[in-house]
User: Which sequence fits this backbone?
């Protein structure tokens, strides 16, 4: 696991032939054959490519790490396949001045996408307990002049406040979890209830919320919907589909709170407030 936020953007630019392969991968059609072709092109670049790449992706300037984070690697080479339905909904629904909440922000693909949509009058609250990936998000936010519209909250979200062990997945930092034991590598992180974080930043309305915290989504959301005033309920919810790890009936709680299920994909559930 490495980070380099000292060198200027462009220090890790690909060689010309690698960049050409990257662009071809990013332009593959959204189909099974397009995905296979993009994966072949990605493999050709990574075989001799660096573990860090500076590139423009989907209108964003980014420094991405290809060895230890699946989401960064996928977004770099295959942005068209990175949650196209979910990110498409954000592009349709987020407006300048809106507030977007990103729980489990990881390296910030959703946060950066949302920051471009909500504009200078809007606000993104990026909540991420792992300092390494949060530093990556901060670096990329600064590259795109989004650092003033993104609030960086280094903490976890759970059903209670306190210090908890975050189990790290060193082959995929985005797979780190408060509830799943995936390795012996752990760090202690401070966790808060979601309503406490919302109140900390004096949020009045939340246009959309994305949550991906590797099976702990029920611990974060059920207390929030039982305690928060309905004015704070997000209009749109994108949550990791980790139903097998949930200890409580999160879909039932969402229905009780007035949400309806819009779509279930391989990775997520999408809900909107009726």
Assistant:
């Amino acid at each position: 696991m490495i980070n380099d936020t000292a060198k200027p953007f462009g220090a890790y630019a690909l060689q010309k032939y690698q960049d050409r392969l990257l662009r071809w991968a990013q332009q593959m059609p959204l189909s099974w054959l397009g995905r296979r072709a993009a994966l072949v092109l990605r493999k050709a670049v990574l075989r001799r490519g660096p573990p860090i790449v500076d590139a423009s992706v989907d209108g964003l300037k980014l420094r991405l790490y290809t060895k230890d984070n699946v989401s960064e690697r996928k977004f770099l080479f295959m942005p068209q396949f990175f949650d196209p339905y979910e990110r498409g909904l954000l592009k349709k629904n987020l407006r300048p001045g809106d507030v977007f909440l990103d729980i489990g922000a990881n390296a910030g693909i959703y946060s950066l996408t949302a920051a471009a949509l909500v504009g200078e009058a809007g606000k993104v609250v990026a909540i991420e307990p792992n300092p390494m990936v949060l530093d990556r998000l901060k670096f990329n936010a600064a590259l795109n002049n989004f650092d003033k519209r993104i609030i960086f909250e280094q903490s976890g979200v759970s059903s209670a406040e306190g210090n908890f062990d975050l189990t790290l997945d060193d082959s995929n930092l985005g797979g780190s979890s408060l509830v799943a034991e995936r390795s012996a590598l752990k760090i202690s992180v401070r966790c808060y209830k979601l309503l406490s974080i919302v109140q900390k930043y004096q949020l009045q309305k939340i246009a959309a919320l994305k949550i991906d915290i590797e099976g702990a989504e029920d611990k974060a959301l059920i207390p929030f919907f039982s305690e928060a005033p309905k004015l704070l309920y997000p209009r749109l919810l994108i949550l990791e589909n980790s139903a097998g790890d949930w200890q409580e009936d999160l879909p039932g709680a969402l229905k009780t709170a007035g949400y309806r299920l819009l779509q279930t994909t391989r990775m997520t559930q999408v809900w909107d407030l009726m």
